[in-house]
Design goal:
Layout: H1 91-114, H2 125-147, H3 151-155, E1 158-163, E2 172-173, H4 176-180, H5 185-189, E3 195-206, E4 210-220, E5 226-239, E6 242-252, H6 258-280, H7 284-288, E7 291-299, E8 302-306, H8 309-313, H9 317-323, E9 326-337, E10 341-351, E11 357-370, E12 373-381
Parallel strand pairs: 1-6, 7-12
Antiparallel strand pairs: 1-2, 3-4, 4-5, 5-6, 7-8, 9-10, 10-11, 11-12
Length: about 375
């Protein structure tokens, strides 16, 4: 059955450039992924016509570590060119008022332009709670419609294009009809499956219209005997005022011993380091060799997938690679660790040639073991 599984998820709290190896060993007596501390997202408000970027902030970051992207110089309250009515009695006052306005505008421009990292006002707790609740409701609908055993009903919980990257074969489906054609509930039912329940769910990172959420599901027989379980991170997006599952980053089944979990987490971190080094080499061929294929990228309200290295080299990443001088990994945390997959929460900075921070971002990296090599399989970013 192609893309037939319900999936599960992920957890995150900033850590100073290290994998919390001891954390990934927790709960190994159960067949579910490790639960780590969860980052509380902070939203960024936008004016009525602002470009809707996905911004967030992790909880308890050091001062100034706020993910930002494009800084905008505010429009002046008054036009720069003011028409003055020539009147000997009032002209001096008019000129003085105009000079005050121009001075205020110039000061604002200097303040905005002098710093490379700009921040925006965070949204309040109510906005955070609303998006968190919306994401959890989207996951509820995802599993409820799965248990209906009707592929077309299940597809209503998803957004398209839809993709489920993991260690096994996967494909990108572009619409409901294409997705439904690949679903076979009878194959799953042949294992004795009756229904699936959530074991755990946590919202990890939240942007304006995207949420990363970790969840563990468990399949059961009709008499309650447990069957398969899996660790998946869900990428949930808001499109046309409807929250749905856009992608599922499938780490796989858990249950590893503590030492093996630590080894795999370290191997995944090394794969991310290789990715960043390749990115900073400013050579698209070098970057292409740091990835597994099909390669998935979810950002800028787009889902992109390159089936081969040649497709990747000819795609959009070369332009992005030339935009920023360097990437710097600031924090990494292993959220889910399995035998063949690791979901990593990454915080990173984009640097100028002088080493100054141009912007900060966060995202989810799925690192997969295939053909004996750990490489980045999929990425979901909140910025660009």
């Amino acid at each position: 059955m192609v893309q037939r599984c319900e999936e599960a998820g992920f957890a995150f709290e900033p850590a100073a450039n290290e994998i919390m190896a001891n954390a990934v060993a927790d709960d190994l007596d159960r067949d579910i992924p490790t639960e780590l501390e969860i980052a509380r997202p902070v939203y960024f408000a936008h004016s009525a016509h602002a470009e809707q970027r996905e911004n967030l902030k992790r909880s308890e970051l050091a001062p100034g570590e706020i993910p930002v992207h494009d800084a905008h110089i505010p429009a002046p309250a008054q036009p720069l060119v003011t028409r003055i009515r020539y009147n000997p009695v009032h002209v001096e006052a008019e000129i003085e008022a105009m000079l005050k306005r121009l001075t205020a505008i110039l000061i604002a421009i200097v303040i905005v332009g002098s710093g490379r990292v700009q921040t925006q006002s965070p949204l309040g707790a109510e906005a955070i709670a609303l998006r968190t609740q919306a994401a959890l409701l989207a996951l509820d609908r995802y599993l409820e419609t799965w248990n209906s055993r009707d592929p077309r009903i299940w597809a209503t919980s998803l957004h398209f294009p839809h993709v489920r990257p993991g260690a096994g074969p996967f494909r990108l489906t572009r619409n409901t009809d294409e997705y439904v054609a690949g679903i076979d509930f009878e194959q799953t039912a042949s294992t004795g499956w009756d229904h699936t329940e959530w074991i755990s769910r946590e919202v990890l990172q939240v942007g304006v219209d995207k949420v990363h959420a970790a969840a563990t599901w468990q399949r059961y027989t009709k008499d309650g005997r447990p069957l398969a379980t899996s660790a998946i991170t869900y990428v949930i997006t808001n499109q046309q005022d409807r929250w749905g599952v856009q992608a599922r980053f499938a780490a796989g089944a858990g249950g590893l011993a503590a030492d093996r979990s630590a080894q795999n987490a370290a191997a995944a971190r090394a794969a991310v380091d290789s990715f960043v080094q390749a990115w900073n080499a400013h050579d698209i061929s070098t970057l292409a060799r740091a990835l597994h294929y099909p390669q998935v990228r979810i950002a800028d309200r787009q889902v992109e997938m390159w089936n081969t290295a040649d497709e990747f080299i000819a795609g959009t990443e070369a332009g992005r690679q030339r935009t920023w001088y360097q990437l710097r990994v600031d924090q990494v945390r292993a959220a889910q660790v399995t035998a063949n997959g690791v979901n990593l929460a990454i915080a990173f900075s984009r640097l100028a040639r002088d080493g100054s921070v141009m912007s900060k971002d966060e995202g989810l990296f799925l690192v997969i073991l295939r053909d004996g090599v750990w490489k980045v399989q999929a990425r979901s970013l909140f910025g660009t």
